[in-house]
Specification:
251 residues; alpha+beta; Arc Repressor Mutant, subunit A; Endonuclease, Chain A; 2 domains; eight-stranded mixed β-sheet; three-stranded antiparallel β-sheet; 10 helices; 23% strand
Length: 251
């Protein structure tokens, strides 16, 4: 397992920290250092590098809590920057990492149902994760300024599976109108409502994604993955409220 992660660009210390978090669950920096046997100074240095690579999430409490990002999302963050020869590593590594997750008899804490990721590179990967898992419906609030082809393809595949899609477009750039026409022709409901700093994806009322966007650079954002149904339902209530106010799009 460690050899596979090294091929994906992780150092020895980073591997020890990530595997420890998968086995033990969320930890403070001090406890993580003890359990992983990584020197205290190197622990925090490695945590910062892992966060930059999209493998860990840091919850801003006192003291800070560090949590491993779900293997499916974490490995995709790495593999998208690699050549196709690493695809076999991806298929082998994800199941092995998932087996390391610690089963708990106690209910999950709130922080265990929230993952925080920084950086623009996570946006298309996270969207793909939600589009691929959807079974009933997707509710999406996003800008049509940034529509990767892979996202469009997976969204169309979801529609073919019978997934109902509602999109709230925060902007309607001229160059994106053809894409919007195609989406509408496939049964997607699209409405317009201007929202500057918030993007949302809701999947089947079970899981959601909230992104806080820098209004001066729409690709600069913080992503919050929410696995709690209660928190997702609260976000969905907000989406539904905006949906009623939004104007249908005609292109």
């Amino acid at each position: 397992m460690e050899d596979k992660l090294k091929k994906l660009g992780l150092t020895g210390y980073e591997i020890k920290i990530y595997l420890t978090l998968l086995r033990e669950g969320e930890l403070t920096g001090g406890k993580l250092s003890r359990l992983s046997k990584v020197p205290h100074g190197k622990t925090y240095e490695s945590i910062e590098k892992l966060e930059g690579k999209g493998l860990v999430s840091i919850f801003p409490s006192k003291p800070k809590i560090i949590k491993a990002v779900t293997p499916e999302i974490a490995l995709n963050n790495l593999i998208t920057s690699k050549l196709e020869e690493y695809n076999e590593i991806k298929e082998e590594a994800i199941p092995e990492l998932k087996e390391l997750k610690k089963l708990k008899s106690l209910p999950e804490a709130t922080t265990e149902k929230i993952t925080i990721l920084k950086g623009k590179k996570n946006t298309p990967i996270l969207a793909n994760h939600f589009y691929s898992k959807a079974k009933k419906y997707l509710k999406i609030l996003f800008t049509y300024e940034y529509t990767p082809l892979e996202n469009i393809r997976l969204l169309q595949e979801a529609i073919k599976r019978g997934v109902k899609v509602k999109q709230l477009a925060t902007k309607i750039p001229e160059r994106s109108k053809e894409i919007m026409k195609e989406m509408i022709s496939k049964g997607v409901e699209i409405r317009y409502y201007p929202v500057e700093e918030l993007r949302i994806i809701i999947r089947d009322g079970e899981e959601s994604l909230q992104q806080i966007v820098n209004p001066n650079n729409f690709l600069d954002r913080v992503s919050i993955v929410i696995e709690s149904k209660d928190l997702t339902n609260a976000l969905e209530t907000y989406f539904d409220k905006i949906w009623k106010k939004a104007k249908p799009v005609k292109v």
